[in-house]
Hemicentin-1
Amino acid sequence: MWCILNAMIVKKTLVLISFLVLLSNVSGKETKVSTTFVIDSTYSMDTEIGEVKRRTDDIFNAVYNSNSSIVDEFIIVTFNDPATGWGVEAATLEVKTNKRDEFETSLRDVKVLGGADCPEMSLTGIELGLNTSKPHSYLYVFTDASAKDYQKYDYVKSLALKKSIQVTFLLTGQCKKDKVEEQHTVYNNLATATSGQVFHILKQEISQIIDYILVNLNNKRTTLLRKTFQDAAECEKKYNFTVDSDLWEIVIALSAPKSLIDDDLDVIGPDGSPAEIQQFVSSQNTTIVKLKGEVGEYSISVTNCADVTVHVTASTSISFQHGFSSDKPRSLDETAKKPVKDKKSYLAIVLDDKEQEVILKTVELWNIDDDFIIELPLKLIDSDQQLYITEPFSVPQQTFKIAVKGLTKSKELLTRVSPTTIEYEEEMPKEKPATVTILGAQEVIAKFGEALELKCKVGGFPQPHITWEDKYNNTMNSSINTIALDEYISTLHINNVIENTTFICKAKNFAIDFDFVIVTTNKKFTVKKYPEDVAVEIGKSVELSLKIDASPPVTIIWFQDGKEINNNENLEIKTSSGSSFLKIKNAKPGYDGKYSVKASNGDENVEYKFNVILTGAVPALIVPVKEFVQNIMDLVEGDKLFQLICIATGNPKPTLKWLFNGITIEDNERYDILYGDTLIVKDVSSKSKGTYTCKAENEYGNDTMDYEVNVHPYPPINNFPSNSPIYLVDDQTFKMPCGDDMIAINSIRWYKDGHLIGTGPLTLNNVTKANAGNYTCRISKSYASYSYHSRILVGSKVKFLTEGNTRYITFEEGAEAQLDCSATGDPTPKTKWIMNNKIIEGGSQYSFIMKNNNNIPNWKNIKCCVSNEFGTIQRDFEIVAGECLMSLEDDFTSRQPILTTGNRKRSWPVFTVSNGFLRILKHRYFTLFCPESFISHNNENYGNNITTYCVGDSMFQLEGKAVLASEITCDKNVVPLAKNFNQICRGSNTTLIGVGFDVGGSFMSVYSVCFDNFTKTPLFVVHDIHKAIANMTPIHKAQYTRGNYLTLEYEDMYDCRNQINAISSFIGKSLKSDEKCCFMRRQLVNPKDVLPGVAQVATYHYLNVVPQWSTCGSENWDEVERRVRMYTINTDDAVPMWTGATSVRNKTPAIYLKDKLNQKLQVPQYIWRVVKDQLAVIHVNVPDLTLSTASSYILCKDICNTIPWMMYEHWQDVDKGFIYCCSIEDFEKAFDYDGYRIFG
């Protein structure tokens, strides 16, 4: 049984983790609620549903643009009448979501169907909406029919009150002949019970009431007054409500099943004069106004008030939740929303006051007409929860409201009323399976040996059988408190916690459920330190220890050879709390061997075994120290000294002595002995040569080590370096290097080719061949001598026989090109020829025959490299052909023919671009093409394509004659085309579109667009930038085209005068009609970033355009494009780019540009560019941006100043356009591109 429960516990744990993850998505501790739409989906409701669809964006924006909204999910429930035979359900949950797109899709998929008879199953739909919604939610019912299932009223009302959900009806009609009165009165009754409203409106007035709903979505709302007038006698009365300093956005709503007149409403302010009100919604049966109220008491009266409902609400930051329990509750979880009949109850109040400005004093119960019933004092029992309770009291038999009263810190009286009425739980619940929830923490740490109380909340009907069990399946003593007809609190009382265990609360009726608590005691047994094998020298002492942090405390016993140790003159044990120490004093034979120590506290025990080893005498031993001295030393006569080091070990410490050729050395003018282990030999000469011996000895043995010392008349020749010589030229003056320049002059001796040539610094003057050779600099210092070796070579540098490092050779068909690189130098130089980065054969001269084979560029990169040991010189040769030059600014228009290469597969020719000109080599062949027109020169028709070549001097060959290239045009403007590649580029709703030109059936793409088929906007474009780009814009700019994929009237949208309202609404201030700052077209692919000519025309397509805050703040994006352009031009290969526009901040209000047809285009919040393998650059495309608000738009770590070519101090100047950079990986995560593998 326990194994089965164990598996169930694992499953429950996973459910708990999932629940906690969901909770982590809700900001703060504030209770979140649902906004639920219960919609009649019969045929007659088509108009109403269409209006809700139209206002979806407004509904979501009201929530996401508010910092105070408590709504975090939206629900759609539809209801219909299955009895009509249309195959429909009585009620259907369409969607439950917090995502705009899911809500829009579900609402769009709602189909109107059926409804042949008028009453509909509205209460069944409301029941499903209530069951699906969170407590304290708002539920709105849209219907034009009465309730066919009115018999459900008592249950539906009980369910709404139990969850404190306000129900509001938007009635656009009523059945003409209801069979019973309750079919239409249930709506008023349910609205009254839940403090909701009934709006009788026309179908076309739905949108106005949605405006009122939006007010309720922005903030938490509280009811100040609700009154339904029964007859005309009540019209003369005035009804009061109070406005305190925490209330704002006060709204007064009047609704009735009859016509209303705006003048029927009279509101008197605190000073006795009429209060200022502003019309909000006005229709035949509904009047809603906003009150511009100050703090104080107001009165309200309604002329012709019969059947009129007045509802006064306000936004607030202070509200409360309540609960009832016959046992004293510790939290609201231990209570129910409705009291149990015939039982005294505690009333619990949890105040929702983030700033904790209010202290509650009392709670009053009012009847449904707001008349006083009883006042009860409140006591704060948990300040963290802001939980107050009353003493147990007898709950009134009638329906009532709860009004809490308290004082702010400034002593202002504050009153808040429950959102719905409260009544006894009398309606028998529906059959409900047992559910169990542990109250409090899922894991509890209890004090060992003390009592513990655990609680679980159980739901279910009929009443489940509730038990508590421990992990051994033992049933525990517990008590049950009924807090509702289908809710119970079970309490487990544990007298004495003595172990770590799990307690399970189980409930069973027709279903079984359970939950569990893991209880951990503070029992512990932790070993902090324990003894290990130890060696101790004879006559010395050693201490061993065992340290344990344990509860209950431990007993520790030490053993030697299996026998318990008692204190004596050589063994001493000291014990304190959790620690014990064994000290072995004056170690000697008999105290070595096997030891152990045992510790136990009754629950746990440990034993550690270890050995004690005695150590003693060690004979003398010399340890080689190679890092200080070699056993063979090579010295040079005249060195100041050398030293030998000898290190010996042993016990007792050995004595040392030095011998030379077997004779003991004493301190004298020739020898120094330092610290006994270092021998210094001074004034090195041939007599210093021999064997030096170090001898170490103690009473247990001795050891020796020999050092062989060789003394040479000059540094040995085999030490000279074989590479890295120093090259000197004739007549040069050169100072010879000798290690550290700070050494004393008299410490240096110079040798050349084995002969001493001088002392001190050495300079070679007027160098000749005689100075070549091997040099040694010998340095003698106070602690050692060492040498520096140099090899000197004397010669001359390489020099061309003729002047000039670059030679130009004019191309002549069939002529021989002779390239000369003759040069002098000593040693004789060698020549290497390189063409197109490949070595070719040749001596000091190279020649070849020039032929026109369309391959002239291959001859341009020819160079020779001439070198010897003294350096290398280079000469470049360039074959110069006649060129055709076309001005990038003046010669290119939208009638310029398309230049292509290739026959079967057309491609863009890449020409050299420099100094503002396109340079086409002489005799370079290519094709001119004019789509949907013909090639024209002097009004002559040359067909739509012709093969030609550069004649030279900016002239093209045209049917046997040379004409100016700029005079060859197309008969019509060349217009770019958009071609659907039928490829998904980012999700199923996207497609990849190429923008380019149709050249004789071959599509030549300039760039590709990832197009969103739903929003009809470009997500991003893909293009390459390389060295041959135009890098400037022609004077004759092309006209923008939109093609077949786009329908918007862009000229209207990009007229600044048409944008004033949208921008003013976003920035919160009015703009003048002549305002200069607005949104303009921004090409994602700049004309400067493509090949010059017709390719630039392709960038003037609206698939390549997004709105940018351009007229005020685009300087930095211009700078971004310039820097990316320069980076790419200096790169050998083409660099892929992705440039796009995105809106990812859902809670930021959107800006829409509109055309004359009222079609909308959303302005992206960000414009970005991803440079492959480098970074992503992001521009914040928001008007009126300040530095303080700009930081909230940074979605990933800024790395601009870590990329050398992107370092710039003005990136975050909001007047020039706020820019930041991210790694590509961070960008993909922040901008929802992770997982698409787009930027590879």
In short: Confidence is low (pLDDT under 50) at residues 1-29, 853-857. The longest strand covers residues 785-800. The chain is about 10% helix and 45% strand.
